[in-house]
Amino acid sequence: MRALVISGGGSKGAFAGGVAQYLIQEQGRHYDLLVGTSTGSLLLPHLALGQIDKLHHIYTHIQQSDIFSIHPFRVRKKGERSYVSINYLTTLYQFIRRRRTFGESHALRRTIEKNFSSQDFDQLKTHGPEIVVTAANLSKYRIEYKALSDYTYQEFIDWIWISANYVPFMSLVQKNGYDYGDGGLGNLIPIQEAIRRGATEIDVVILESEHMNKTKVLGYNPFSLMIHMFGFMVDQIKSHDISEGIVMAKHHGVVLHLYYTPTKLTENALIFDRFQMAEWWEQGRNYARDKFLNHSSPLNARNSNIKKGE
Question: Phi and psi for 174 in degrees, rounded to 5?
């Protein structure tokens, strides 16, 4: 069974879209299982349907207003660099309303529903590969995996949305009596879940460079510092997910193909710049093509060799 796993990564999902486009359209990869977290969850339905052009249009025309119904921060550019600061008005508004997050992302749920129809859902449920998204049950301190085949259309739209809600900057969602948020808070790269569901060969797109060569510049205000601190914690989760996934793959004789980003794409993946994302999409496609030209023979995890697309 061949599977595709896509990590979380916000706007960097555009890079994953480019990698997946090359794998599906130019390499002819067919996937029986697709597993994702956060932006990975957003990508999966369209990839499963073969709607590559539509997905490209979405990821290269998206705007902040398509994600945030209440914007938690302000973004200003100085040269090539973007700086993030707190939006004091919306933060005050959230406190007055006794909300638990700095921003809200109900616009994202509307965007998902607008682009992934009930007819698309029915097609996948009847004829498509299995799709699994990752969500963090913050009430029970555990990660949960939600398969399309187990839910109705509206329920699965909720789970895709929940998987991509980077709390506390996006909505905290109450569902079935529990509080849920972004699956990346506990499992950024769900390799192990794909193996547990029977995958024997897995393409894994990791929306981070394998080695961070640049020193991070910490935030100049409490809000941007908080974003960097969350980034640090997610980076540790990423490292754990990869190492545990490789160990499990070796144990079960699963072939892994790991595709990292070649460089650090951005310091804040909550900034959705459509022009930048269009560049990342092309980078992802060209990057995957280059790796196939350089690495023509797959390596088997059973022999302690993991093919890295980096």
Answer: -90, 125
Structure tokens belonging to residue 274: 């459509």
Residue with the two structure tokens 């995958």? 199
Neighbours of 90 (CB within 10 A): 18
Directed axis angle between helix 13-21 and helix 39-49, to 10°?
30
- Please give the model's pTM, rounded to 2 decimal places: 0.90
- In tens, the pLDDT along 22-58 reads 999 999 999 999 999 999 999 999 999 999 999 999 9
DSSP, res 109: H
Residues whose CB falls within 8 Å of the CB of residue 168, separated by 6 or more in sequence, listed in order: 100, 101, 102
Q: Tell me the residue length of the chain.
A: 310
Q: What is the mean pLDDT of residues 67-96?
A: 81
- φ/ψ of 308, rounded to 5, equals -105, 125
CA distances, 71 to each of 91, 93, 266, 280 (Å)? 9, 11, 19, 24
pLDDT, position 214: 60
State the DSSP string of 249-263.
HHHHT-EEEEEE-SS
What whole-number percentage of the chain has pLDDT above 90? Answer: 69
Q: In whole angstroms, how far apart are CA 3 and each of 87, 108, 123, 201, 204? A: 40, 26, 19, 6, 8
